[in-house]
Amino acid sequence: IGFELLNGKIQDTNGKWIIEQLLPYGVQISRITIIGDVLDDISSSIRETILRKPQYLFTSGGLGPTFDDMTLEGVAKGLHPPKPLEVDQVALELVIKKYLDRFPNKPFDEVITPARKKMANLPKGGIPLSNREGTAPGVVIPPNLTNGFTKIICLPGVPIELKAIFQDHV
Question: What is the DSSP string of 69-128?
Fold first, then answer.
């Protein structure tokens, strides 16, 4: 997920890497979809994929603190029924710890900005995944929130972060 993939600024290496990790386990890959940072496109892609009932749906990108990072909002909207976003306390603690470790001598309010707190807003029932290489937690949406079968795994777009969360949790 990201306009930088659609306008050619960066190449999708994350999709290839995830496929390389899954194939040895017999996971069949049915498609890769690249979409921009558009809330309705994200939610409709999630909804359409859930209807096909794959075992896994991976997203990469759009978990950060910037205005165009809206993957989790799109996922929440694409669930059936849609789920609200809510501050997940575990995710918030992960984000706060990362930023306080990074900026130990700055005041809390200066470091923990609303944009950074946004990274702890998960679809209700989502499970945060710690990110040893970055600040945005990954998120698992369990099958009971999708269609009873599909597990959604949302990963950051930064390759080193995506790989770390995948290796540590997936």
Answer: --HHHHHHHHSSS---EEE-HHHHHHHHHHHHHHSTTS-HHHHS-HHHHGGGEEETT-EE
